[in-house]
Amino acid sequence: MERLRKCIKCGVYTMREQCPKCGGETRMAHPPKFSPEDKYGKYRRRARFGLEAI
Q: What does the domain layout of the chain look like in residue ranges?
């Protein structure tokens, strides 16, 4: 099952690994599922917000 992806450079939504408009890299457009027992949430927040936020 393919998921919707979004280009990092131009913001175009696509199903491809590479943007058809600008050729840039795409990432998943959906966040991961939420779980109260999230083992890796601390690391994701640290990567996103920096060390000061934790």
A: 1-29
